[in-house]
Structure prediction request, 129 residues.
Amino acid sequence: MITDSNSILVVEDDEHIGQVLKFLLERQGYRVSLFNEGLAARDGIEAAAEVPRMILLDVMLPYIDGFELVKIIRARDGWDTVPIVMLTAKTMEQDIVRALDAGANDYVVKPFQPNELLARIRRFLKAKA
Prediction:
């Protein structure tokens, strides 16, 4: 499967945060696919012809949560090395450990600082280049 070197998949159910992320990333030159709930994200992932360069994923989502989406993403051919950054308000250590154990690469707690998030994204994309 082909990796799209310029696309980032964002799954975020808060419309405002989703739009902020889309704006921030597009301003950095990335193409953003935005899903606002788990079922749509799963369907989009399963139908995707290209692998995104990175995924930003909320934990608390309608229908299918972020933990389950990480498992779906990691099980997909060619998606096993895509960097996944969890973006969530869940701050409990057990949630962080669960996300990392499921296959997430990083965990950012909301409210996040935009420049810190962009720095984390650049770090993953540089490592993958």
Remarks:
- The chain has a mean pLDDT of 93.
